[in-house]
Amino acid sequence: MLRVIAAGVLALAFASPHAQTLDKIRKSGVITLGYIEGAAPFSFTDGNNEPQGYSVELCRAAAAGIAAQLKRTGLKTKWVKLTIQNRIDAVRKRQVDLECSTTTWTLSRQQLVDFSLITFLDGGSLLVKADAEFGRLQDLGGKRIAVLRGTTTEKALRAALGRYSVNARIVPIEKRDEGLALLRESQVEAFASDRTALIGVVVMSGSGPGVFKLLDQDFSVEQYALMLPRGDHEFRLAVNRQLARVYRDGEIQKIYARWLGPLGPPSVLLTATYFIQTIGE
């Protein structure tokens, strides 16, 4: 009897505290998805205040697949608006089941949360005014560069400035719209973020052609993935099963065309990433 009790105690001790996401979704009939407003074309709100974008659509596909797996017809989706600063804590504290925006998968973040298969590849770049005379990071000595506070882009930018011995002033910001406004008003000379996100924020701002330009240089590689609670292996498998199906069935090409098509076809590296992740059952 004592051996049975001891075995039960050990099982509880080693059980994952986050292994209940699928059970919670099954019982509640609700999956909670987080998104960041103002991260077009990956996540933003439309005129009806509904979340839209490339990452949002991938999360919707994952939710539909999970509903089918759980045999829960009419599974409801609850959307929670997050910020760059609170998105990791929201996943850690189980305020959302899945986070759907532009989060870069890093090993230090994986100590806190878990990640899905890679959903997109991007690179950190610099947006400047169209009439700016500098054309690369090394030209920004003595200049001011806005960057989102606490992001992998900020860390990579500081590392790149150190690597090239560029003495630029970092101006931390909270939202991409703020960075664009500072650049437009000449309060900074450059705005650093992921290349595709910079294009998105300019397009969403309604700025016409010839106002801003991107430098033809990336200072980092950003591997986007969907965040989910750490240690919940069954939920991670359920999410990855749906992403692999999207890649395998070619649905990803339609999703890419809808949200990123105007920027040109997927890069060779991104196409290879989709192909490598067409994991079979």
Q: What count of domains describes the coordinates? A: 2
SS strand fraction = 15-25%
- CATH fold call of the largest domain: D-Maltodextrin-Binding Protein, domain 2
**What is the element string, with H for helices and E for strands?**
HHEEEHEHEEEHEHEHEEHHH
Number of helices: 10
Q: Please give the CATH architecture of the largest domain.
A: 3-Layer(aba) Sandwich
Please state the CA-atom Rg, rounded to the nearest Å: 21 Å
Biggest sheet architecture: 6 strands, mixed
Give the helix proportion (percent range).
25-40%
Structural notes for this entry:
The structure is a single chain. With 281 residues, the protein is an alpha/beta fold. It folds into two domains: 17-121 and 222-276, Periplasmic binding protein-like II (D-Maltodextrin-Binding Protein, domain 2), CATH 3.40.190; 127-221, D-Maltodextrin-Binding Protein, domain 2 (3-Layer(aba) Sandwich), CATH 3.40.190.10. Helix content is 40%, strand content 22%. The chain has helices at 2-14, 21-28, 54-70, 87-92, 152-163, 176-184, 195-205, 233-248, 251-260, 268-276; strands at residues 30-36, 44-45, 51-52, 76-82, 98-99, 114-129, 144-148, 169-173, 190-194, 212-214, 220-228. The strands form three sheets. Strands 6, 7, 8, 9, 10 and 11 form a six-stranded mixed β-sheet that branches. A hairpin with a 5-residue loop joins strand 2 and strand 3. Helix 3 (54-70) crosses helix 8. The radius of gyration is 21 Å and the shape is elongated. The model is unreliable at 4-19 (pLDDT under 50).
